[in-house]
Each structure stands twice: as C-alpha cells, then as structure tokens.
What we know:
This protein is mainly alpha-helical. It is built from 10 helices and 2 strands.
Amino acid sequence: MDITSTTNEQVFTIDINATLEPTVQANTSLPRLYNIDSGDTNWIITRFGMLESGCVSVKNEVNIMMKNIADIVLGGLTYWAFGFAFSFGQSSLTNPFIAIGDFFVDPSITNPMKGSIYSAFIFQMSFATTATTIVSGAMAERCNFKAYCLFSLLNTVVYCIPAGWVWGDHGFLYKLGAVDIAGSGPVHLIGGSSAFASAIMLGPRFGRYDGGIEPLPLGCPVNAVMGLFVLWWGWLAFNSGSTYGLSGEKWKYAARAAVMTMIASLGGGCFSLAYSMMKHDGRLDVLDIINGILASLVSITAGCFLYVGWEALLIGTVGAALTCFTMPLIDKASQ
Length: 335
C-alpha cells in the first residue's frame, strides 16, 4: 500500500508493506500480521485503571481497579480462545466479513512462524483488552461487578470482527484501502461506541446532576493526573509499536509516529488549557485538561506516521476542541 503526502517543500511516499520483510522461507505465504522479527517485539502497553480510579469516589476506587483486572483476565481469555481467530484466523472459511481459524492460539513448536504468531497475538490482545477497558470508565459507580465480568467476556466479539475488517488481510475495509495504523477505529471508535451505549443504558451516576452539570469532585485528582501521564507516554509505545518494530526501515516510521503523536498532544493540551481557563475565569478544571489531551491522542492514532508536524498539531487541536465543546452538551442532554 503506497501513501503519498505532499507539502510545499517535499513529496514523500511511504510503502507500508515494503518495510515489512518476511523472515521465513521464501515459499511461505506470510500474512502482514506476522511480518515481525526478533528485534521487533520489545513493546509494552498501559491501562486506564489509575486514571479511572482518580475520577470516581474514594469508596469505588478498588472496584474500578478490579474491573480493569477483569478486562485483562477475562477479555484476554476470550481473545485467546476465539477473538484472534475471528480477526486474523486463516482457513477456507475466512471471508471479507469475518476470519475463521486458528482458535486457541498455540502454534506448533516446528512452525517457522511461531515467534511471529506469538508476538502478533500478545500485541493484538493488548488492543482488544484496551477496547474493553475504555468501557469501564463509562460504567463507573453504577454497574454490578458480576455483570461487568460478563460484559468483559463478551466484548471480545464486539471488538474482534471490526478489527479484522481494518487490519486483517481478508477484511473488506482493508481491501478498499482503509488505513488505521494504531486503532482509532477498531480500538477507540468501537470502545467509545460501547461506552456511549453503556452510559445511555445505565444512566447518570446517583446524584450526578443534583447540583447542575458541573463535574462531581474527583476522588483523587492526583491519581487521575498520574493516570494521564502513564497513558500519555504509553501511547507513544502503542503508536510506535504499531509499525511492528524497529528493524530495517521500520524504526524511522516508529520515530515519526512518536513525534507526531507528541505534537498532536501538545496541540490538544494547549487548547484544553486555554478552554478551561476561559470557561472557569482563569482557573483550571483537571477533567478539561485530561479529556482534551486524551482526545488529541485518539485523533492522531489512525495516521500517526503519515502526517507532517503542522497537520499533527491541527488534528490534535481539533480533537480536543470537539471533546471540550461536546462534554457540556452531553451533560445538558442527560439532565
């Protein structure tokens, strides 16, 4: 897939597939997902637990952390059992809507692609559990823990099929030319849609609008801000890691992804600071800043290494603006 970007000063072409060289025998058909070598596996992800625990009342901090644990344990189990198979499985039954095959991921010890399969699985599982974790914040303080565990088990289905549309070789969106490098659509759009539906079904937290639409006091603002910092830097690993490593030419795209991600968050952060100060007569609201920066990070994720600096800055600023202006509207509609 060739993607060409033009500016006043330069024209450059990025061939995504050309940077991913096969590492097994030449006569082996190697899916894009498994184009990983031993130098491409040292990437980590982070969770939303600290951020969410700081945004709920003190009595519910442990509950929200346990829900994040459930996301990993139960969501990871179902992704291993059938989620990966529905996104990237290979068999004669695979079609443009859903993949079928490779259930209970466990390649043979003699499989020449076993290392790549394991690496791809653990990285993709991190995306799947993140999509579920997004929803836990929308259900905070008003969902039975057992019911949430059931949701964690089943949400894999909600995530894995659309993920295959975009990232699987079989996916109809991929074949139409859709590009989503690090999951703005499969992770954040799907997770956000599930969160929005959950919030509508459950309604507002008890007493949420008794005093108007102003946010409730945070249980621990320090935890919330620390959660933002962890997510902020973890996002660099997510977006850079979505180049699938550092070998060959991929390190250049990984570095570009990290820089453009950072620039977008700077735009979002500057806008949310200005917005919060104007809204509150010179004072700052922690939630305005957190949500603005997170919105900018989500906005840049789909094309993180395809943009130039000013484009990344604009994208991050627009993402933050949409979030900051939309939040009060949703609160007013929910009263």
